[in-house]
Design a protein that fits this description.
The complex is a heterodimer.
Chain A: H1 24-38, E1 44-48, H2 56-59, E2 63-66, H3 72-82, E3 87-93, H4 94-100, H5 102-110, E4 116-121, H6 151-154, H7 160-164, E5 170-177, H8 181-200, E6 204-210, H9 214-217, H10 221-235, E7 239-243, H11 252-261
Parallel strand pairs in A: 1-2, 1-3, 3-4, 4-6, 5-6
Antiparallel strand pairs in A: 5-7
Chain B: E1 4-8, H1 9-19, E2 24-27, H2 34-43, E3 50-53, H3 57-69, E4 74-78, H4 80-95, E5 100-106, H5 122-126, E6 137-139, H6 144-161, E7 164-170, H7 171-175, E8 177-181, E9 207-208, H8 215-236, E10 239-242, E11 249-252, H9 255-270, E12 275-280, E13 282-284, H10 288-293, E14 300-305, H11 311-319, E15 325-329, H12 338-358
Parallel strand pairs in B: 2-3, 2-4, 4-5, 5-7, 6-7, 11-12, 11-14, 14-15
Antiparallel strand pairs in B: 1-8, 6-13, 10-12
Helix pairs in contact in B: 1-2, 1-6, 3-4, 9-12
Classes of the chains: A alpha/beta, B alpha/beta.
The structure holds thiamine diphosphate and iron/sulfur cluster.
Residues 18-19, 22, 24, 52, 122, 126-127, 213-216 of chain A line the site of iron/sulfur cluster.
Chain lengths: 293, 362
């Protein structure tokens, strides 16, 4: 008999801890399929976050580490630098990546750390029971925005791919979704591409997966998919926000040099007044402690 | 014989760490430790290692967590406010049984405090560098030579016991220059079969983790860790003793403060007072045994610290009520003078002799 469908080798044979209809499960499967197809399970190190996917270290069959809330990029940065031959990925939720771990996220991306980030955006904190995330939509009701997210006090939902795409260190920033078979197939391709870029040393890659949280959205799984399409996709449009290879560059360094050469907007038409040259005053002796707190 | 050279404490420490096989350094600038980072930035690339200026102390310690998990000898250094931020990562390292070295070149606190030397992070280092049930091995150098020696040894201690190790120094030791003989390069390192290197389909996958959702599991790991701490207590207590055999008054002081206490001891001896000094080298495990052993002829114990009185708690536990324990300290980044310490010794000596002639000093 011919096997046409089986568990990816890179997934352990243990039940997931995710709620029924949660797309964390599909996303895990896609990551594992990519590891299988690229034959890199044995050389990959995954970083599990804090959030519903905290137990990812029990699901992926590669070497795994569990990181403090939001710090996965810093952990991944170090692992990659200790052993550049390993493929290193983080798997993070929106609270983990865009709230507590925003600094770590932005700086790993800006350093062009050659790691792959799988970013699951479900617009809510899942694990802690449905509080507002930095990605929660305007007017979205959550446990900590009971009257709906009020952007005048809670701020606006953050579009991570768009923001990171402005950073020179980013090789690939793409937003995908799990709402239709077609989109799932596209997500799979994107995830695999991100790993391929890492193997080629192109730079930091992030795949944002627009995902559901039927449990905390208080919706049946099918209705959650519908809610995702109607509410999330307009604010988080799917697409490629940066792809330096598609732009014809070998890696982020080459692409950054080209960006500098051709400014994206017209230079300011106002003449810039000549001012004092910077650093006229000695910046202080090396080792000086004066005023340095 | 290896050559004696003149070096700044922070730089001797950095060079010695490299010789101990440290190949990953993650830092963030803060006075008075910045020379450690600057030195590493200059040297690490040439050593084929990684120097990275992290975006924050939080990121830096989490990088140490990652690098240690991947099997590298990794270090971070900071000063007091930065160490507070590292608390999270230190707790995770302890929870995941990862070796690594954390250097605290202390300045005065709390808050932004000041930038002058202090020992006010003693409680933090020995009690609660982060949340949870755990200890660090804490070493307290008192000379530039020991800045080099202690950090060199710290990496071995960390690997042997799979625990983070802290070097608790202060701005005075970091900034001062003294002759130092640097250790020979270490060439052999322990195997780390638990490290994350990719299983290459040849072993089960390794997991580095501090999460144990079942309370029974978490307790079991904690109990195991504390059994290891008992071994550390039995094997690694270190202290230097100076003139304690016939001492009526025993001083206890660590780090830079011990140097001042020693000057005061010498002056007091010249004045005919029998004084000795115990200098704890390991602050955790605290050298309780050495303190107990020094109480033979003692009438009182005096701790001298650059804080409002922190180590004195551990000294009281060690002395266990056998003789009175007094404290003298200066805070805020002020270094006590030998004359001030001597004055405290003289006052105690008077009380001791009054007690001898007049009855009980307790
Ligand atoms: C320092 C710290 N703060 C808070 C928490 C509690 N916490 C656990 S999961 C979580 C939110 C995770 O949400 P998200 O990253 O969106 O992932 P999801 O659960 O939705 O998959 C929080 C705040 C923690 N573990 N550590
Ligand atoms: S709480 Fe939400 S995000 Fe978490 S597993 Fe359940 S559905 Fe998924």
């Amino acid at each position: 008999m011919k096997t046409v469908f089986e568990r990816p080798h890179a997934l352990c044979d243990v039940p997931f801890t995710y709620c029924p209809g949660c797309t964390h499960g599909i996303t895990h499967r896609l990551v594992a399929e990519a590891l299988d197809e690229l034959g890199i399970e044995g050389t990959t190190i995954g970083v599990a976050p804090v959030g519903c996917s905290v137990l990812a270290y029990e699901f992926f069959a590669c070497d795994m580490i569990q990181a403090a809330h939001g710090r996965a990029p810093a952990v991944a940065t170090a692992i990659k630098r200790v052993n550049p031959a390993n493929t290193v990925f983080t798997y993070q939720g929106d609270g983990d990546l865009a709230s507590i771990g925003m600094a770590e996220t932005v700086h790993a991306a800006s350093r062009g750390d050659n790691i792959t980030v799988i970013f699951v955006n479900n617009a809510i904190y899942g694990m802690t029971g449905g509080q507002m995330a930095p990605t929660s939509l305007a007017k979205q009701v959550t446990q900590t925005s009971p009257y709906g997210r009020d952007v005048s006090s809670d701020g606006f939902p953050i579009r991570v791919c768009e923001m990171l795409a402005t950073l020179d260190g980013v090789a690939l920033a793409q937003r995908v979704s799990m709402d239709t078979p077609r989109n799932v197939r596209a997500a799979k391709k994107a995830i695999k591409k991100a790993f391929e870029y890492q193997i080629e040393g192109v730079g930091y890659t992030i795949i944002e997966v627009v995902s559901t949280c039927p449990t905390n959205w208080g919706l049946a799984p099918t209705d959650a998919m519908e809610w995702l399409r109607e509410n999330m996709l307009p604010h988080y449009p799917l697409g490629v926000y940066r792809d330096v290879k598609a732009e014809g560059f070998a890696d982020v360094a080459e692409a950054a040099l080209a960006r500098d050469a051709e400014p994206e907007c017209d230079p300011c038409t106002e003449p810039i007044e000549a001012s004092e040259p910077p650093f006229e005053d000695a910046p202080g002796e090396v080792g000086s402690q004066a005023g340095d707190v | 014989m290896a050559e004696k050279i003149l070096m700044k404490g922070n730089e001797a420490l950095a060079e010695s760490a490299i010789r101990a096989g440290c190949r990953c350094f993650f830092g963030y600038p803060i006075t008075p430790q910045t020379e450690v980072a600057a030195y590493m930035a200059k040297r690490m690339a040439k050593e084929g290692g990684t120097y990275l200026q992290a975006e924050s102390e939080i990121a830096a310690i989490n990088m140490v967590y990652g690098a240690a998990a991947a099997g590298a000898r990794a270090m971070t250094s900071s000063s007091s406010p930065g160490i507070s931020l590292k608390g999270e990562g230190i707790s995770y390292m302890a929870g995941a049984d990862l070796p690594g070295v954390i250097v605290n070149i202390q300045r005065g606190g709390p808050g932004l405090g000041g930038i002058q030397p202090s020992q006010s992070d003693y409680w933090q280092a020995t009690r609660a560098t982060g949340h949870g049930d755990f200890h660090l091995i804490v070493l307290a150098p008192s000379t530039v030579q020991e800045m080099a020696d202690d950090v060199f040894e710290a990496f071995d201690l960390a690997d042997t016991y799979r625990t983070p190790v802290m070097i608790l120094a202060d701005g005075m030791l970091g900034q001062m220059m003294e002759p130092v003989v640097l250790p020979e390069r270490k060439t052999e390192f322990p195997e780390k079969p638990w490290a994350l290197t990719g299983h290459k389909n040849q072993r089960p996958h390794n997991i580095v983790n501090s999460l144990h959702l079942k309370p029974e599991d978490l307790e079991r790991f904690s109990v195991e860790r504390f059994e290891r701490y008992e071994t550390i207590k039995a094997n690694e207590q270190r202290a230097e003793t100076f003139l304690v055999d016939d001492a009526e008054i025993v001083l206890v002081a660590f780090g830079a403060c011990a140097r001042i206490a020693r000057s005061a001891v010498n002056k007091a001896r010249e004045a005919g007072i029998n004084v000795g000094l115990i200098r704890p080298i390991t602050l955790w495990p605290f050298p309780t045994d050495a303190i107990e052993a020094s109480l033979g002829t003692a009438c009182a114990v005096l701790t001298v610290e650059m804080n409002m009185g922190q180590m004195v708690d551990d000294v009281r536990l060690a002395v266990n009520g056998r003789v009175p324990v007094e404290f003298f300290g200066r805070a805020g980044g002020i270094i006590p003078t030998p004359a001030e310490v001597l004055a405290n010794i003289e006052a105690l000596a008077e009380r001791c002799s009054a007690a001898k002639t007049g009855g009980d000093a307790r």
